[in-house]
Amino acid sequence: MEAFTTHTGVGVPLRRSNVDTDQIIPAVYLKRVSRTGFEDGLFAGWRADEHFILNQEPFKAGSVLVAGPDFGTGSSREHAVWALMDYGFRVVVSARFGDIFRGNSGKQGLVAAQCSQSDVELLWKLLESEPGTPVTVDLTDKTVRAKDLVAPFEIDDYTRWRLLEGLDDIALTLRHEPEISDYEGNRQTWLPTTDPLPAV
Amino acid sequence: MSRTLAEKVWEAHVVRHGSGAEPDLLYIDLHLLHEVTSPQAFDGLRLANRKVRRPDLTIATEDHNVPTVDIDKPIADPVSRTQVETLRRNCAEFGLRLHPMGDVEQGIVHVVGPQLGLTQPGMTVVCGDSHTSTHGAFGALAFGIGTSEVEHVLATQTLPLRPFKTMAINVDGELRPGVTAKDIILAVIAKIGTGGGQGYVLEYRGSAIEKLSMEARMTVCNMSIEAGARAGMIAPDETTFAYIEGRPHAPSGADWDAAVAYWKTLRTDDDAKFDAEVHIDADELTPFVTWGTNPGQGLPLGASVPDPEQISDETERVAAEKALAYMGLQPGTPLRDIRVDTVFLGSCTNGRIEDLRAAADVIKGKHVASGVRMLVVPGSMRVRKQAEDEGLDKVFLDAGAEWRQAGCSMCLGMNPDQLAPGERSASTSNRNFEGRQGKGGRTHLVSPLVAAATAVRGTLSAPADLEN
Ligand code: SF4
């Protein structure tokens, strides 16, 4: 995954709380077999409404979502993170995240920045009064900045380190490749393989 | 230090101990794949330009979506067809062994592994499927994983994991005639609840477990997940060794002796401590059936539909009310009076040869009740073939049942084998969730013996009921 240090993009004020993963991407989209292309499923239920924020300029091109508390609760589907990232979001700012969603985000390279609700409200006001205001999310000093506003956010150290280094789970494990090879060298020789057997 | 079986297997697979918050890195001996949970994992590999590390420890089969009739024709449902075709493409691209529809080794992934002798004691086995716990019957540590973990195992043959807690399920005594492994596990789940096993690996032990055949042990371990457990295990013994010996991928010659010597060490030490223990008296068990919409909502067949009013726990009472409304049942109705439309014999829980034999034995020379359809779906093509060699297909067909090709079928109704809204089934599968077998379908989980007797009488029944 891509390393993340700082990102500047259009902020999208989403004045809703308890946005669960079913709302982020409805179940019908789970039938797909691809790992990309979920942008059309993002908030599919709401996007049918032309007044929905992502149907408005300049928010259409948003990359920093500023949402109400308890974002990403509900079913554990990883598609929720895929849909946000496929759409173009790099960061979600909220006062509280669903645990599994937050975990999935860190693994896929989406920054789940936990701000105070009062800062979220200030961001909402700013983004609504001046649509298109660029928002900068800086993972090195853990701040969200927009115009004069500087809002600190929280993210756990381990996830932050991984995001800064751009290490997904697999890349992390592959740092221990020599140990895996060592282990393989010592496995019992009688353990089965799935190599096709000679026909009898 | 004394250790449990699960801890021994865990330790033997640690590639690297994590420090602090970091998980252990565990080596995976066998990775099973099917068409539903693997596509995005392969796509992830492609996006990151990664390969499958050990194609020789990986095997795939088509099971969830496959039709059980007309398997020589293209799959009609576009979503099912896409998933199956995607698996074929991925296996070809990444060089993986696949048993496709129509192949003699095709079948439900959890039937295929053991049948090929690929599942052996002391191994770590994973699959993007919660019923991977089935393989624990061999004393393997086997558990279901999510799609991103599937990708992780494909790429690294390892998984970062935190140790599980251990729970002993002691089942002592003698099962009465007509009482099976399915009744044991339904009784266990009813006792500890669908969340009772959360965070645990269950180890089934005790004299009643030791007497079970290998296939019966698989039935028990299969449903560990329905108690919320990550995995279920049974210590390997002579029954296990005898089942494995001579199978296509079993060790042979000097390897066999070395393997058995190691397998014999795979027992929980006498003074090892479990984090929790549960006791079940096998003598007390009778055929068990579920009345509700989760596998923990079960009762002995002789009981009646419970009255939610009498359930003191608020959450359970509400759950029971909702379940009865969905199931269309009245409190106080004797379970034996419940009429079914469909009987499903199959799934990774009860779709093996012994299950088919047991049911055939009950139904032989009798007829499926009028208005009832019975679907017999072998767990694999091998099971199907063996059953046909033994003439079981004739027994079922003569009784008026349908004899199908192998797959998951009505266990989850991803293929056309589904219940219609409001239709009621007695099913040997493992989940009676709302809509699991078809939108609006009502499922009663039962053993193969109860399934067969129910097919004959048309109401939930045990074989003993056929004698009166
Ligand atoms: S038979 Fe049912 S439970 Fe088993 S793998 Fe298939 S769908 Fe899952």
Description of the structure:
The complex is a heterodimer of chains A (200) and B (468). Chain A is of the alpha/beta class. Chain A has a single domain, classed as Aconitase, domain 4, CATH 3.20.19.10. In chain A, 32% of the residues lie in helices and 17% in strands. Chain A has helices at residues 21-24, 44-47, 79-87, 99-108, 117-129, 157-165, 169-174, 177-185; strands at 6-14, 64-67, 91-94, 111-114, 134-138, 143-146, 149-152. Chain A has a 7-stranded mixed beta sheet. The longest helix of chain A has 13 residues, at 117-129. Chain A is globular. Chain B is an alpha/beta fold and 468 residues long. Helices cover 31% and strands 16% of the residues of chain B. The structure holds iron/sulfur cluster. Iron/sulfur cluster is lined by residues 63-64, 108, 110, 129, 131, 347-348, 408, 411-412, 429-430 of chain B.
Count of extended strands of chain B: 19
% residues in beta strands of chain B: 15-25%
- Residues in helix, % of chain B: 25-40%
Number of domains of chain B: 2
Report how far apart the termini of chain A are: 47 Å
Q: What summary fits the major beta sheet of chain B?
A: 5 strands, parallel
Work out the count of structural domains of chain A: 1
Q: What is the H-and-E element order of chain A?
A: EHHEHEHEHEEEHHH
CATH homologous superfamily identity of the largest domain in chain B? Aconitase, domain 3
According to CATH, the homologous superfamily of chain A is Aconitase, domain 4
CATH topology of chain A: Aconitase, domain 4
Shape of chain B: globular
CATH class of the largest domain in chain B: Alpha Beta
Number of DSSP strands of chain A?
Answer: 7
Mean pLDDT across all residues of chain B, rounded?
96
**Can you tell me the overall shape of chain A?**
globular
Cα-atom radius of gyration of chain B: 21 Å
Give the strand order, joined by hyphens, for the main sheet of chain B: 5-4-3-6-7
Oligomer: heterodimer
Regarding CATH, which class of chain A?
A: Alpha Beta
Q: State the end-to-end CA separation of chain B.
A: 56 Å
